[in-house]
Specification:
The structure holds two protein chains of two kinds.
Chain A (H helix, E strand, L loop, with lengths): L4 E3 L2 E4 L5 E6 L6 E7 L6 E7 L2 E5 L6 E5 L5 E5 L8 E8 L10 E2 L3 E5 L1
Parallel strand pairs in A: 2-11
Antiparallel strand pairs in A: 1-3, 3-8, 4-5, 4-9, 5-6, 7-8, 9-10, 9-11
Chain B lengths: L3 E3 L4 E4 L4 E7 L6 E7 L6 E6 L4 E3 L2 E6 L4 E6 L8 E8 L5 E3 L3 E6 L1
The chains are: A mainly beta, B mainly beta.
């Protein structure tokens, strides 16, 4: 059973640039959620993908977008990067079956620094 | 009131002591609850689920108080390796999973 893998592990971008972060979900999981964790804060929900569609969104602007592929892997895209976008971006996979949710498996995250 | 609140700490506790911290939640319809552990610059990892009847896993005990809308985590005989941030996670239903900001725990030798 493979875990959740994210790439890249670290990234430095300039303000105004665009970035794409990638996540491969755990085998057997069908749902991917993305979180932003600033230093000293808890993870903040960005959005969730289930069956290749966005299935819930947190309080993030439209310049944060995503995709889920048929193999349940996912991408997070951020346009027009701002300094405050600097954070650890966590991908969490889970298995959704009706109303049941049994917790996330997190990837090790991508640490994005915007300068 | 914030959806999920935790005392950020840090809790500085001598090795071998017992430490407990709580997490309050605002949505009375919340369905499930979890404690995650996060080491410095690492991803969160599931520590334990919190059941209505309370549950214990070795030195760790989690409890849920629905009437007062809080969950608790008790760590007995604390070890240096218990030093971490403990995140409270609440499933508010409709796939709304909310994390607290975490409680930092430092176990002192």
């Amino acid at each position: 059973e493979t875990g959740v893998t994210q790439s890249p592990t670290h990234l430095i971008k300039t303000r105004g640039q665009q970035v794409t972060l990638r996540c491969s979900s755990q085998s057997g999981h069908n749902t991917v959620s993305w979180y932003q964790q600033a230093l000293g804060q808890g993870p903040q929900f960005i959005f969730q993908y289930y069956r290749e569609e966005e299935n819930g969104r947190g309080n993030f602007p439209p310049r944060f977008s995503g995709l889920q592929f048929p193999n349940y892997s996912s991408e997070l895209n951020v346009n027009a990067l701002e300094l405050d976008d600097s954070a650890l971006y966590l991908c969490a996979s889970s298995f959704t079956a009706g109303a049941n949710w049994n917790g996330y498996t997190f990837g090790s995250g991508t640490r994005l620094t915007v300068v | 009131r914030k959806e999920v609140e935790q005392d950020p700490g840090p809790f500085n506790v001598p090795e071998g002591a017992t430490v407990a911290f709580n997490c309050t939640y605002s949505n009375s319809a919340s369905q499930s609850f979890f404690w995650y552990r996060q080491d410095c610059r690492k991803e969160p990892k599931l520590l334990m689920s919190v059941y209505s009847s309370g549950n214990e896993d070795g030195r760790f005990t989690a409890q849920l108080n629905r009437a007062s809308q809080y969950i608790s985590l008790l760590i007995r005989d604390s070890k240096l390796s218990d030093s971490a941030t403990y995140l409270c996670v609440v499933n508010g239903g409709s796939d709304k999973i909310i994390f607290g900001k975490g409680t930092r725990l430092h176990i002192l030798p």
